From TrEMBL:
Designated gene of the protein: LYPLAL1
Keywords of this entry: Acetylation, Cytoplasm, Hydrolase
Organismal lineage: Eukaryota, Metazoa, Chordata, Craniata, Vertebrata
Catalytic activity: S-hexadecanoyl-L-cysteinyl-[protein] + H2O = L-cysteinyl-[protein] + hexadecanoate + H(+)
PANTHER family in alphabetical order: LYSOPHOSPHOLIPASE-LIKE PROTEIN 1 (PTHR10655:SF17), LYSOPHOSPHOLIPASE-RELATED (PTHR10655)
EC number(s) on file: 3.1.2.22
Protein name: Lysophospholipase-like protein 1
Cited function: Palmitoyl thioesterase that catalyzes depalmitoylation of CGAS and KCNMA1. Acts as a regulator of innate immunity by mediating depalmitoylation of CGAS, thereby preventing CGAS homodimerization and cyclic GMP-AMP synthase activity. Does not exhibit phospholipase nor triacylglycerol lipase activity, able to hydrolyze only short chain substrates due to its shallow active site.
EC class of the enzyme, as a word: hydrolase
Native source species: Myotis lucifugus (Little brown bat)
Cellular component GO terms held in the UniProt record: cytosol
InterPro entries (UniProt xref): AB_hydrolase_fold, LYPA1-2/EST-like, PLipase/COase/thioEstase
Length: 239
């Protein structure tokens, strides 16, 4: 798989800003989904597209690959896992390949004139985990990271990278349903505490009774956080 990085250009579903583009948001889907699928799901939950006056939203699609939790079946996943658990090693080879591919995506935004501190990256489930790897291991100068219904393995390479950090780190915004049966709420909490202890400032929102899914309340909170991290021209002038 290592040879992939140079040649993979991710399929992208893009929602352009209504006004002048001055910031970018990269939103990564969960396992087995697509960029288009995540956009549709959010639209269904909010009864409208997630859009901003000045922020371009990019929903990339993970390449199809064999996925061990599906007995090697082909799925659109950001990386492979030995199993869905926080208690096993990470499949670092596949994670590292995708960190490089997503770095290309970030670099495309920078080349188009968007500063790194005006780029947010995050995602749902596996997408949130992938975003934490990309930002905290390779791009500690992005505006922020968000992880919805996500977790990091107990021995994650992210924790190792942060032990060697220098300088400020992007803030983490996390949401998790207490009734999540696939990614346990406690795994999300443990991830949050571990990152906090390594110097990351975090926001953690629990949603009582929410399963492994998106909710209106969660997306409204996320939207407010996005605008706080990537204010438009008018808000920036007030600061």
């Amino acid at each position: 798989m290592a040879a992939v990085s140079g040649s993979v250009r991710l399929q992208r579903c893009v929602v352009s800003p209504a006004g002048r583009h001055s910031a970018s948001l990269i939103f990564l889907h969960g396992s087995g989904d697509s960029g288009q699928g995540l956009r549709r799901w959010i639209k269904q939950v909010l009864n409208q597209d997630l859009t901003f006056q000045h922020i371009k939203i990019i929903y990339p699609t993970a390449p199809a690959r064999p996925y061990t939790p599906m007995k090697g079946g082909i799925s659109n996943v950001w990386f492979d896992r030995f199993k869905i658990s926080n208690d096993c090693p990470e499949h670092l080879d596949s994670i590292d390949v995708m960190c490089q591919v997503l770095t290309d995506l970030i670099n495309d935004e920078v080349k188009s004139g968007i500063k790194k501190n005006r780029i947010l990256i995050g995602g749902f489930s596996m997408g949130g985990c992938m975003a934490m790897h990309v930002a905290y291991r390779n791009h500690q100068d992005v505006a922020g990271v968000f992880a919805l219904s996500s977790f990091l393995n107990k021995t994650s390479a992210v924790y190792q990278a942060l032990q060697k950090r220098d300088g400020a780190l992007p803030e983490l915004f996390q949401c998790h349903g207490t009734a999540d049966e696939l990614v346990l709420h406690s795994w999300g909490e443990e991830t949050n505490s571990a990152l906090q202890s390594l110097g990351v400032s975090t926001k953690f929102h629990s949603f009582p009774g929410l399963f492994h899914e998106l909710s209106t309340g969660e997306l409204e909170k996320l939207k407010a956080w996005i605008l706080a991290k990537l204010p438009g021209e008018m808000e920036r002038q007030k600061e």
